[in-house]
């Protein structure tokens, strides 16, 4: 049985349908991420789980028990707030021990578990300091230790990395994964950053306009987005408007205006004449400067219009016939190859039929 | 350099109109009263006239200590009652919607816009028919009434700045309504409590109009005593001594409470 069951939950604020008929099932020990643009309803959903807000319709069940009517202080659910919300008048030790005091634990138990928790987040030597004396990353770890110390059934994390700079964010992302594995507590993580979502999660739910667009493992969501929104929001992708020509046993035959025919993996559903998009990731494209790529199912000619040097990879903008532009990404694995393809250079670009997916409108 | 130039006028003002009179007062406490008020010069007819006479006088009669004690008691009671009344009010204002806040604050300070004496006379009219006029109750009620806004404003100013996320975090971590107040709101509002208490306690200690108008003959406070020395008894040296001792007592109290605050934080 799932640890947390969300059944047809809705929440409306005036005209805004913040959460719209959402159903989710989150398992014990899972690192589950809600990702979406700001205003997609992910934070509202988190507040419904924490108990700061109540749904207009639907049910929330934790361990099979209905959560409606149980106030936040009685739920075995703790939250790491975006601002961390550390108590400024308490030391690190007092902050972290707070939930144990609230639970009425004995002094002995508090002091031993406090030591354990501070060691878990590498802050044992900061116990007597006040939050204002700590760096952003340290505060973040205090917030984590405080939310974890009383072993909640569920830990909610509301954009906990948003206030950190990029380098620290990367480091703490790694620590977060290790921490979750170590404590074995279910994490529900909210973020607007698709990279963070892909990096940390066992499963991701992509949200938009209060609805869940797709739920799945990171690689599943990345490789097989179910619709244009997911394809576009997670990572970067080339979206070519196409019309379905035919579907038969040896492929899905699509027609892209100005380009010609594109072959995709055969799937059940699309019928000839239907409009949609063909989506293919930049790293799935192959580029050669001389000759054709006739060995690939789809191949075209074009010119390099621009490139974006990112250090580890370079993204080339390739202009095909009829001004269709594709992004292609090449890793800079060979020293000196980074600017190998100059602007205006003629190239051939191609991909196998299973490199991309057809998305219905 | 600019910093010094800009701060020169207010510094001069304070030195001339605050420090100099304060020092004059210290000097006066050792001088002799003139026959019709004023002071006998420190040197007269080649004779040195300074003495500790007023201090001996103060220590020689227990009535002064009693009046000092009563004044501190009245000030403490007024401060406590103001705090108990002002805290819920300040909390209510701080937690109400942004649009209502300014209106509510305006209502709190509105009484200050009318004349102080007129408001005290209004209390005479109020308390007269119920037989409470000229009692300690009337004095404290009047003191609380006049000083309440000075407790509400610093408290509100403090409470309004609390991050609401802190209370949510406390609730999330298992704290009920009362625990959230005792563990989060109250400790965070201590600076506001201290500021409000100082703004009430110190003026009440020196207040003479309210006890004179609302209190009985047994409700005289230090303020009345000092006023009497200057206006009625023409004993400026004794008045100066009383003022000086009052100032010293207030400073000692402030020092002690600051020290207590540091100790508390040190232990935490």
UniProtKB/TrEMBL annotation, chain A:
GO terms for biological process: putrescine transport. It catalyses: ATP + H2O + polyamine-[polyamine-binding protein]Side 1 = ADP + phosphate + polyamineSide 2 + [polyamine-binding protein]Side 1. The keyword Translocase applies. GO terms for molecular function: ABC-type polyamine transporter activity; ATP binding; ATP hydrolysis activity. Keywords: ATP-binding, Cell membrane, Hydrolase, Membrane, Nucleotide-binding, Translocase, Transport. InterPro entries: AAA+_ATPase (IPR003593), ABC_SmlMolc_Importer (IPR050093), ABC_transporter-like_ATP-bd (IPR003439), ABC_transporter-like_CS (IPR017871), Mo/tungstate-bd_C_term_dom (IPR008995), P-loop_NTPase (IPR027417), PotA-like (IPR005893), Transp-assoc_OB_typ2 (IPR013611). Its EC number is 7.6.2.11. SMART domains: AAA. It is an enzyme of class 7 (translocase). The keyword Hydrolase applies. GO terms for cellular component: ATP-binding cassette (ABC) transporter complex. Residues 4-234 form the ABC transporter domain. Signal peptide: none annotated. Belongs to the ABC transporter superfamily. Spermidine/putrescine importer (TC 3.A.1.11.1) family. Part of the ABC transporter complex PotABCD involved in spermidine/putrescine import. Responsible for energy coupling to the transport system. The complex is composed of two ATP-binding proteins (PotA), two transmembrane proteins (PotB and PotC) and a solute-binding protein (PotD). This is Spermidine/putrescine import ATP-binding protein PotA. It comes from Candidatus Accumulibacter vicinus. The gene is potA.
């Amino acid at each position: 049985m799932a640890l947390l069951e969300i059944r047809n939950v809705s929440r409306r604020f005036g005209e805004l349908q913040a959460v719209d008929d959402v159903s989710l099932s989150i398992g014990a020990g899972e690192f589950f991420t809600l990702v979406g643009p700001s205003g997609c309803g992910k934070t509202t959903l988190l507040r419904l789980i924490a108990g700061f807000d109540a749904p207009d319709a639907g049910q929330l069940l934790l361990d099979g028990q209905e959560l409606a009517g149980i106030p936040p202080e009685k739920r075995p659910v703790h939250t790491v707030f975006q601002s961390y919300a550390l108590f400024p008048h308490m030391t690190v030790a007092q902050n972290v021990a707070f939930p144990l005091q609230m639970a009425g634990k004995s002094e002995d138990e508090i002091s031993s578990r406090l030591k354990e928790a501070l060691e878990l987040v590498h802050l044992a030597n900061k116990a007597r300091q006040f939050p204002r004396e700590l760096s952003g990353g340290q505060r973040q770890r205090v917030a984590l230790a405080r939310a974890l110390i009383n072993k909640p059934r569920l830990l909610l994390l509301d954009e906990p990395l948003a206030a950190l700079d990029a380098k620290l964010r990367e480091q703490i992302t790694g620590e977060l994964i290790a921490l979750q594995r170590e404590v074995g507590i279910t994490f529900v993580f909210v973020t607007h950053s698709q990279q963070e979502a892909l990096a940390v999660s066992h499963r991701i739910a992509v949200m938009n306009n209060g609805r869940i667009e797709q739920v799945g493992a990171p690689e599943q969501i990345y490789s097989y987005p179910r619709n244009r929104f997911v394809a576009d929001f997670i990572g970067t992708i080339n979206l070519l408007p196409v019309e379905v020509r035919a579907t038969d046993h040896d492929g899905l035959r699509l027609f892209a205006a100005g380009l010609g025919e594109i072959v995709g993996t055969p799937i059940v559903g699309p019928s000839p004449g239907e409009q949609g998009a063909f989506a293919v990731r930049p790293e799935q494209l192959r580029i050669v400067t001389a000759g054709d790529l006739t060995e690939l199912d789809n191949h075209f000619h074009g010119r390099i219009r621009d490139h974006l040097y990112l250090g580890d990879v370079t993204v080339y903008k390739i202009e095909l016939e009829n001004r269709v532009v594709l992004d292609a990404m090449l890793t800079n694995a060979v020293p000196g190859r980074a600017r190998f393809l100059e602007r205006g250079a003629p190239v051939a670009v191609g991909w196998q039929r299973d490199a991309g997916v057809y998305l219905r409108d | 350099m600019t910093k010094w130039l800009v701060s020169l006028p207010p510094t001069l003002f304070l030195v001339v109109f605050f420090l100099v009179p304060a020092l004059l007062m210290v000097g006066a406490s050792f001088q002799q009263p003139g026959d019709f008020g004023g002071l006998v010069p420190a040197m007269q007819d080649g004779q040195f006239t300074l003495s500790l006479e007023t201090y001996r006088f103060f220590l020689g009669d227990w009535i002064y200590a009693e009046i000092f004690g009563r004044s501190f008691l009245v000030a403490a009671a007024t401060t406590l009652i103001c705090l108990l009344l002002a805290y819920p009010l300040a909390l209510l204002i701080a937690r109400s919607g942004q649009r209502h806040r300014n209106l509510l604050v305006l209502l709190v300070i509105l009484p200050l816009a009318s004349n102080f004496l007129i408001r005290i006379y209004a209390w005479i009219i109020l308390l007269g028919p119920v037989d409470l006029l000229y009692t300690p109750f009337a004095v404290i009620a009047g003191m609380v009434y006049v000083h309440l806004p000075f407790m509400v404003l610093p408290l509100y100013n403090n409470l309004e700045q609390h991050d609401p996320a802190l209370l949510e975090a406390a609730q999330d971590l298992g704290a009920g309504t009362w625990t959230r107040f005792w563990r989060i709101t109250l400790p965070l509002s201590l600076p506001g409590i201290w500021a409000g208490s100082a703004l009430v306690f110190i003026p009440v200690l020196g207040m003479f109009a309210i006890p004179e108008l609302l209190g009985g003959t047994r409700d005289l406070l230090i303020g009345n005593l000092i006023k009497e020395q200057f206006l009625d008894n023409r004993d400026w040296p004794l008045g100066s001594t009383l003022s000086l001792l009052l100032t010293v007592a207030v400073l000692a109290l402030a020092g002690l409470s600051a020290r207590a605050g540091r100790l508390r934080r040190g232990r935490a």
